[in-house]
Write a structure and sequence with these properties.
single chain, alpha/beta, Rossmann fold, OB fold (Dihydrolipoamide Acetyltransferase, E2P), Helicase, Ruva Protein, domain 3, 3 domains, eight-stranded mixed β-sheet, five-stranded parallel β-sheet, 19 strands, 25% strand, globular, ATP-binding, ATP binding, nucleus
């Protein structure tokens, strides 16, 4: 039997600058492999980042900060994202840029604190009474509409759930029927219904139906074991900011857990320190009771030199807090003026007292061989075929200009190849687009040579 294949179009629609990053690319001893997991070169920086990941995992890094410092285009953001990949999607990772703190609607310190709270996770374990099984019957029962007329309304719904051990028939409210419709539940699906709240969760299609179609983008799950009515441990992952936002304008019950499903759309409204202190107390109580576990995540602040003296001072206090994430800064500046001051210069534009607190990871410019490997990797990620001569030419361009500029030429070169009736990029395509566009250094040189022809 011929099995057809359907490819996702999501990947081809949006490929970001760091789509190829899958991790730090370290071996089992923590040494960097020259090219692995989407990263090339920068062995020392990657090994240092590996030590940071180990400290985060062993919970010995909370409230500390790391600075990635190096020239533009040396992989600082890539290493920060690789750290996030190594930690996994259960550890919160909140990226921001230094200039984000400047808003006309909200205080600078409030923006920082909000992002701090986004980077701290809370894993809540609850034991709930649930009905779980494969849907074998789903029958809505209609009655005459109480408003009169010819319309009918659903008064209740009869649902039968079966497991490997037995089956049970339930009579559910119309509101739960709406939840079933929202989850698109049908006969043959495995679901669970919370006995107290009536919340419905579709887990997938029963694997008894796995041979129903030759090709189907469906997740199949085994028939649940045990009784239909049981106690089940449910794990919820939220961030402290989620709790702040849910409690800022609460609806329904006053218990923190009851508000998880009622998170409002984020609006630019300040959350008071008093509210945060109250939430911290409740969080501490849940941790002491063993109901919840704190998961310190990563707050990544790129272009940290854009922060001013006030926000740097506030960062001191925030880092010393009992509940603080791991903070990773990145900057490409050398010695420069600290923003918000008139004459205070410092390395990387960061005050010396904060700089003393940081573990600094240095990134160095790529050599030509590394650039060629990265260009091959990017071409592969973007689904482009490229000849070795073309890669060599782009590597030379990257050495003279920058790696970022060389990567930018890949797509125009591919379009030129298509116009010339080829699917692969050749040397002539790179030379053609190289003559059409200018890099920053060439443009600056032309401006210098012709400065009398430009307005100043």
């Amino acid at each position: 039997m011929k099995v057809e294949e359907v490819k996702s179009i999501v990947k081809t629609q949006r490929i970001s600058a760091h789509s190829h990053i899958k991790g730090l690319g370290l071996d089992e001893n923590g040494f960097a492999i020259q090219a692995a997991a989407g990263l090339v070169g920068q062995e020392q920086a990657r090994e240092a980042a590996g030590v940071v990941v180990d400290m985060i995992r062993s919970k010995k890094m909370a409230g500390r900060a790391v600075l990635l410092a190096g020239p533009p285009g040396t992989g600082k953001t890539a290493i920060a994202l690789a750290i996030a990949q190594e930690l996994g999607n259960k550890v919160p990772f909140c990226p921001m840029v230094g200039s984000e703190v400047y808003s006309s609607e909200i205080k600078k310190t409030e923006v920082l604190m909000e992002n701090f709270r986004r980077a701290i996770g809370l894993r809540i374990r609850e034991t709930k009474e649930v009905y779980e099984g494969e849907v074998s019957e789903l029958t809505p029962v209609e009655t005459e509409s109480p408003a009169g007329g010819y319309g009918k309304t659903v008064s209740h719904v009869i649902i039968s759930l079966r497991t490997a051990k037995g089956s049970k028939q339930l009579k559910l409210d119309p509101s739960i029927y709406e939840a079933l419709q929202k989850e698109k539940v049908e006969v043959g699906d495995v679901i669970y219904i919370e006995a107290t709240s009536g919340a419905v969760k579709r887990q997938g299609r029963s694997d008894a139906y796995a041979t129903e179609f030759d090709l189907e983008a469906e997740e199949y799950v085994p028939l649940p074991k045990g009784e239909v009515h049981k106690k089940k441990e449910v794990v919820q992952d939220v961030t402290l900011h989620d709790l702040d936002a849910a409690n800022a304008k609460p609806q329904g019950g006053q218990d923190v857990l009851s508000m998880m499903g009622q998170l409002l759309k984020p609006k630019k409204t300040e959350i008071t320190d008093k509210l945060r202190r109250e939430i911290n107390k409740i969080v501490d109580k849940y941790i002491d009771q063993g109901v919840a576990e704190l998961v310190p995540g990563v707050l990544f602040i790129d272009e940290v030199h854009m922060l001013d003296i006030e926000t740097f001072t506030y960062l001191h206090r925030a880092l010393e807090s009992a509940i603080a994430p791991i903070v990773i800064f990145a900057t490409n500046r050398g010695r420069c003026l600290i923003r918000g001051t008139d004459d205070v210069y410092s390395p990387h534009g960061i005050p010396l007292d904060l700089l003393d607190r940081l573990l600094i990871i240095r990134t160095i410019p790529y050599n030509r061989s590394d650039m060629e490997q990265i260009l091959k990797l990017r071409a592969n990620t973007e689904g482009l075929e490229i000849d070795p001569d073309a890669i060599t030419a782009l590597g030379e361009i990257g050495t003279k200009a920058t790696l970022r500029y060389a990567v930018q030429l890949l797509t125009p070169a591919h379009l030129t190849a298509k116009i010339n009736g080829r699917s692969n990029i050749v040397l002539a395509d790179v030379q053609e687009v190289g003559s059409l566009f200018l890099d920053a250094k060439s443009s600056a040189k032309i401006l210098q040579e012709n400065k009398d022809k430009f307005m100043s």
